[in-house]
Write a sequence for this structure.
């Protein structure tokens, strides 16, 4: 509880505007620095040395004490300079499916000299370290588990360093408003989408089905026995499976009402699986959701649009 209180106080004192327009340059007023545990212990040792030198009038004790104090001051300067004038830019955040890991990327640029052991972390997560050189930017990827569909926001990030000796902790906060789209987890048990079309087009194209024989393919674990080409196996050929096809209309509608599932989240998972399967078969398809209709199409951009609509269904932030 005390740690949460300290973190809340620190969040209020060292708050940053959100979101911030990139790039962010860590100027002097943005960098904070305090001793670490080792730094406080080092200061306590210096105090003991100073008191002992004063009490016993030890000239070499004074020399050692002030020499160590000077080294500590130089270490504090180098710790601060390791962050000073770093430039931060937001990186690419690719969409993922629920249950996977989102990679929030931040690009670091060191305009003048190399920086060592620079770390970025999200509150409650482990830090990710990187060295940044003037030859090119460094990309830091922060892994975050995507447990549910929707828009996953990264939140405020902390960049810090304890280089070179760990006596001081220099840090700063920034927030680019990073967010990633988390698609519903496809339900592999949903099977193939219905072949009927509500577009009124009688033109047919082949899709997976069980009506007409299409070709032989390599056997995949899980293929039913009725699909195995037993005659080919008897001739000494490799284990093959029969692939059948059915005729579907040129435009297929994936409808919310056709997804038979006990709850809305399960329906979204079924529709996500249908989107992937229909795209894999190369068929033009549209998507009907309560309050949203996406016209038929196909391709990576159309697939991403449909999956994003499923991910943001029911959210206020949905476009």
């Amino acid at each position: 509880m005390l740690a949460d209180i300290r973190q809340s106080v620190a969040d209020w004192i060292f708050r940053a505007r959100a979101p911030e327009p990139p790039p962010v340059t860590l100027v002097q007023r943005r960098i904070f620095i305090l001793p670490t545990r080792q730094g406080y212990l080092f200061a306590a040792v210096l105090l003991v040395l100073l008191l002992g030198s004063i009490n016993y009038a030890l000239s070499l004790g004074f020399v050692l004490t002030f020499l160590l104090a000077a080294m500590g001051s130089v270490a504090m300067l180098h710790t601060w300079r390791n962050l000073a004038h770093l430039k931060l830019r937001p990186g690419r955040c690719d969409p993922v499916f629920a249950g996977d890991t989102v990679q929030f990327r931040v690009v670091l640029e060191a305009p003048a000299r190399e920086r060592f052991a620079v770390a970025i972390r999200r509150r409650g997560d482990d830090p990710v370290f990187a060295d940044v050189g003037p030859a090119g930017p460094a990309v830091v990827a922060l892994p975050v588990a995507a447990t549910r569909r929707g828009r996953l926001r990264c939140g405020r990030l902390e960049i810090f360093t304890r280089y070179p000796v760990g006596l001081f902790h220099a840090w700063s906060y920034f927030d680019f408003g990073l967010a990633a789209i988390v698609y519903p987890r496809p339900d592999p048990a949903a099977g193939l989408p219905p072949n009927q079309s509500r577009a009124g087009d009688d033109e047919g194209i082949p899709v997976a089905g069980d009506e007409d024989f299409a070709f032989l393919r390599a056997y995949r674990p899980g293929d039913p026995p009725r699909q195995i080409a037993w005659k080919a196996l008897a001739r000494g050929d490799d284990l093959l499976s029969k692939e059948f096809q059915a005729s579907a209309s040129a435009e297929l509608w994936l409808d919310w009402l056709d997804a038979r599932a006990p709850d809305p989240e399960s329906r979204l998972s079924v529709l996500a699986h249908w989107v992937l399967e229909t795209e894999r078969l190369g068929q033009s398809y549209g998507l009907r959701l309560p309050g949203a209709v996406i016209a038929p199409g196909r391709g990576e951009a159309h697939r991403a649009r449909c999956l994003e609509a499923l991910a943001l269904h029911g959210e206020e932030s949905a476009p």
